[in-house]
Amino acid sequence: MGAQQRPTESLGFSPVLLVPDPVRAAPGPFRLFTSGSALLRFADGLNGFRSIWPERLGDEHADLVAAFFGVLQDWIASADHNSIQAGPGVSQTLDRHIKELIMSGFVVGARERFLLLVGGIDAKPESWRIVDVKIQPAVLVRIAGVAGNGFGPAVAAGDERRAGP
């Protein structure tokens, strides 16, 4: 065995790594999602996802975020994760969680990253699509002109908790 060769490489194995795909674009900005069906369509065909949690969450908000990511994780772990036909139940459940997050002052964003799976027995790199899903606190504002006239609703219809004067 040569000085540079690892013991596993002599058996036809090498470490398995995920590395950025040099021919694909770097990760772009996060897209906002307000429905479960839109998020499932975006995530369709993924190889994995990464959940990004907001910092300094209270217990109530941590439970909301955990419930949302739990549904998404269950969908990905299921045999139907590469199909948006996994059932309207998943989409409706995600809709409900996204609405609860929005009403609590959070937004849901996602972006895709392309990696290469390299190493192992097969020397041929394999493309992997990863989706980063991020929950981010948001500040809702009402945009108004000089005369104080608003340019549109700043909150979801029927939410008097956030409605301004």
The gist of it:
With 165 residues, the protein is of the alpha+beta class. The protein has helices at residues 36-43, 59-77, 88-103; strands at 17-20, 31-33, 48-52, 106-118, 126-137. It has one domain (15-137).
Polypeptide structure, described:
The protein is α+β, with helices and mostly antiparallel strands and 165 residues long. It has one domain (15-137). 26% of the residues lie in helices and 22% in strands. The chain contains 3 helices and 5 strands. It has helices spanning 36-43, 59-77, 88-103, and strands spanning 17-20, 31-33, 48-52, 106-118, 126-137. Strands 1, 2, 3, 4 and 5 form a 5-stranded mixed sheet that branches. Helix 2 (59-77) packs antiparallel against helix 3. The model is unreliable at 152-165 (pLDDT under 50).
Radius of gyration: 21 Å
Straight-line N-to-C gap: 77 Å
What is the mean pLDDT?
80
Low-confidence stretches: 152-165
Largest β-sheet summary: 5 strands, mixed
Structural class: alpha+beta
Return the domain count.
1
Specify the overall morphology.
Answer: elongated
Order of helices and strands: EEHEHHEE
What is the number of helices?
A: 3
Count of DSSP strands: 5
Percent in helix: 25-40%
Percent strand equals 15-25%
Task: Explain the layout of strands and helices.
Layout (H helix, E strand, L loop, with lengths): L16 E4 L10 E3 L2 H8 L4 E5 L6 H19 L10 H16 L2 E13 L7 E12 L28
Parallel strand pairs: 3-5
Antiparallel strand pairs: 1-4, 2-4, 4-5
